[in-house]
Amino acid sequence: MLESFGAFRGVGDELATHRRVIWALLMRELSTRYGRHNIGFLWVLGEPLVFAGAVTLMWSLIKPEFEHGVRVVPFVVTGYMSIILSRHMINHGMNCVKANAGLLYHRQVTITHLFIARILLEFIGVTFAFFVIFGFLLLIGQMAPPKNLPLVYAGWAILAWMGVGLALLFGALAEIFEFMERIVGVITYIMVPLSGTFYFAAWVPGQFRRFVLLLPFIHPVEMIRAGFFGEFVKTYYDVAYAVAWSASLTFLGLVLVQFIRSRVEIE
Fold it and tell me: How far are the Cα atoms of 18, 30, 154, 161 from residue 120, in angstroms, in the given order?
């Protein structure tokens, strides 16, 4: 009994150490990236908010209020915020180790901690930006409350999980191959038209839809939109397929992170 209690206490102490390390890295990342003057760390919220707001305003000016029977503003917000989440996670995972290599001299800091801190910062910033822009548009009558809030949360969580896997994967590969920085930049741009950001899977002709649904990002984006629009729109998503992709990408990313750890330590 005492041995079991001691084991649980040891695990609790270890988790507490990880939490403190990640929190310290998170605060350091905020300070070094955004500084302590002017709006400082609030820019982690302001940056995605400005981009999403500008794109939403542009679409609302050049497009009719409804397109394909769907209101344009919530359609753009749900799609563009989704791609911002993925792109920010991936882009800030690049050069994560190079920018913070000096911190690895501290025994408690690991490469995994560096990735988690950066990815978590992007997730928090984009998620809060989504809440703010949704709340504002809700107040002015441009968006309605989600029809299925748990489905929105589930889609957002799976999308973030997929972003974590890709951030780990591409970030680790960038430490091995220098040219990955240029390739990942191209990939994140290609993701915009392929991720379902500006279309529903239902708008794709039936003979091509099954190929489009092979793209993993489509599924969580469709889940988010299904949660917002409800039964008024036809959506296609496979939760198990999206989860399988997210788990596989994360596993592969963690394996590569462990591989580059030995390379960094040797250098």
Answer: 14, 11, 17, 11
- A 10 A CB-CB count for 3 gives 7
**Cβ neighbours of residue 87 closer than 8 Å, sequence gap 6 or more:** 188, 191
pTM, rounded to two decimals? 0.84
Report how far residue 149's alpha carbon sits from residue 126's, in angstroms, rounded to the nearest whole number. Answer: 18
Structural contact between residues 49 and 128, judged by C-beta atoms closer than 8 angstroms: no
The two structure tokens encoding residue 83: 């791609």
Query: Which position has the token pair 């990942």?
Result: 184
Which amino acid, residue 216?
P
Q: Where are the alpha helices (DSSP H) in the chain?
A: 2-34, 43-62, 72-93, 96-100, 111-139, 149-176, 180-194, 206-212, 218-229, 239-266
- Tens digits of residue pLDDT in 155-189: 999 999 999 999 999 988 888 887 887 888 788 87
Residue length of the chain: 267
For the chain, counts of helices (H) and of strands (E): 10, 2
Which of these, 235, 116, 215, 201, lies nearest to 164 by C-alpha position?
116
